[in-house]
Design brief:
Layout lengths: L2 H7 L7 H6 L13 E13 L5 E13 L3 E13 L13 E4 L6 E4 L11 E15 L3 E12 L2 E14 L4 E14 L25 E15 L4 E14 L7 E5 L22 E3 L5 E15 L2 E12 L4 E14 L2 E12 L8 E3 L17 E13 L5 E13 L19 E13 L1
Parallel strand pairs: 12-18
Antiparallel strand pairs: 1-2, 1-21, 2-3, 3-6, 4-5, 6-7, 7-8, 8-9, 9-10, 10-11, 11-14, 12-13, 14-15, 15-16, 16-17, 17-19, 19-20, 20-21
Length: 437
């Protein structure tokens, strides 16, 4: 499992925190608050079926309010991750042995099972800080920084956003810019793309530590339509460059007639892969365009929150996300909030389940199921209440299901009925407690 992907999982879930924050509608201007601290804490569990990724996450978000509408926000998240995900290998009618990513040992996948190395363990620590203040009467400025660290991945980022109110503060136009520089340093070094999986102790195809940079630009407008309706529209541009491979994902080398993974002849006394696999190769740049719309509608005490996002990139991936939430008051102290989210995407142009032995290698190839054609649905329910001391608590339970498809005309020989898209079922549980001032 890519530890880079694990980083992203702890917020799939937290797979969506950045997207949710980026899409949140600006709140109406409020009266000046008294200076002081308030805190939002949460405990989140994310668990995939079949002993795949398990994530236990603790986070604290603290906000300090100052005079003159100035805010400082500090955040800390700690994730404990275990398990693994499919490494790109194919199910076979015989057992398969793989060299572990470190190059120091092997693991074996039983016949008819999806190759998964379940020895993964990691801890991720992430921090962020931001400062917001008005610039004159109609402008607001927000600047921030973020950092996270795990066993083989370091992220450093900065961001800034400026907004201006128009039309008696019923219209807000904003522009944001973010830059991040990430370092990927897998144990033993990142593998050279499209090179063969090596025997234990052989690190001759490793190219060491790698870097990537990401620049994001967001332009948005928020409009109060009526007393009961507020809407927002955003355009986002993202440019990634550098090492964009997943150093833990592989691609099978298959027989052009049978579709079976080509066996690997090991010298006596040598441990290594039983079949031929190569490390994936992705382009060293990626440009994404996203269009996001959100509306919040007040209906006699209930609030409907609906959003839609369309994303397209130069890897030929197009995605659609529809998100619906309904905050339903039970009384003046508690509420229920059902949640429904649907996501669908097309596959990357270089996604393939294997390369044919003896044919020229493509420039780019990946069997990472996250780059495939799939649909996903999230169904959940949140219950929140106000305690006697005025603090807020909530619990959230969600079920996530992901289903993909590999067209039959893409399968060769024995792959029919054996090689399938690695479907996924997961559960999310979150407990939150907000207190202060």
């Amino acid at each position: 499992m890519s530890k880079e992907s694990n980083k992203n999982i702890s917020a799939t879930l937290a797979t969506a925190t950045c997207a949710l924050l980026g899409g949140t509608i600006a709140q109406p201007v409020q009266a000046q608050e008294e200076p002081g601290w308030d805190f939002n804490t949460s405990l989140l569990y994310y668990g995939e079926d079949e002993d795949r990724i398990q994530d236990l996450s603790v986070s604290v978000l603290a906000r300090r309010t100052f005079q003159d509408d100035r805010w400082m926000t500090l955040g800390l998240t700690v994730d404990g991750l275990t398990g693994a995900s499919p490494n790109g290998g194919l199910q076979q009618s015989t057992a398969q042995t793989f060299t572990q990513p470190s190059g120091n040992n092997t693991f074996t996948a039983a016949a008819g099972t999806l190759p998964i190395d379940d020895t993964f363990r990691d801890t991720r620590v992430a921090v962020n800080a931001s400062w917001q203040q008005p610039l004159g009467r109609l402008y607001n400025l927000n600047v921030g920084a973020s950092a996270s660290n795990e066993f083989d991945y370091l992220h450093l980022g900065v961001n800034a956003k400026i907004s201006r109110d128009f039309n008696k503060r019923n219209t807000t136009v904003s522009a944001g810019l973010a830059f991040s520089s990430d370092t990927i340093d897998p144990e033993g070094g990142a593998p050279s793309p499209l090179t063969s999986m090596q025997n234990v102790g052989d690190l001759g195809n490793r190219i060491g530590e790698q870097d990537k940079d990401i620049v994001d630009v967001v332009l948005g407008v928020t409009q109060v339509i009526s007393r009961n309706l507020i809407m927002q529209a955003n355009y986002s541009f993202s440019d990634s460059s550098g090492y964009l491979n997943d150093p833990y994902k592989i691609v099978a080398v298959v027989d052009g007639v049978t579709g079976d993974v080509v066996p690997n002849a090991l010298p006596p006394g040598i441990s290594g892969p039983s079949h031929e696999y190569i490390f994936e190769s992705r382009p060293d740049s990626r440009t994404k365009h996203s269009f996001y719309n959100q509306a919040k509608y007040f209906m006699g005490g209930k609030v409907l929150d609906a959003s839609y996002r369309y994303m397209t990139d130069d890897w030929d991936i197009d995605s659609h996300t529809l998100d619906l939430r309904l905050r339903w008051p039970i009384n003046d102290k508690s509420y229920l909030e059902p949640h429904l989210r649907f996501y669908t995407q097309s596959e990357a142009e270089f996604y393939q389940i294997g390369v044919v032995d003896g044919s020229p290698l493509p420039a780019y190839a990946s069997s990472d199921y996250r780059l495939g054609d799939f649909d996903a649905i999230t169904v959940g329910l949140k219950y929140g209440w106000e305690m006697r001391n005025g603090n807020d608590m909530s619990v959230r339970l969600e079920l996530y299901q992901q289903r993909g498809d590999i067209p039959g005309d893409r399968l060769i020989g024995n792959q029919v009925g054996l090689v399938e898209y690695p479907d996924l079922d997961a559960i999310v549980f979150q407990f939150s407690y907000q207190f202060g001032r």
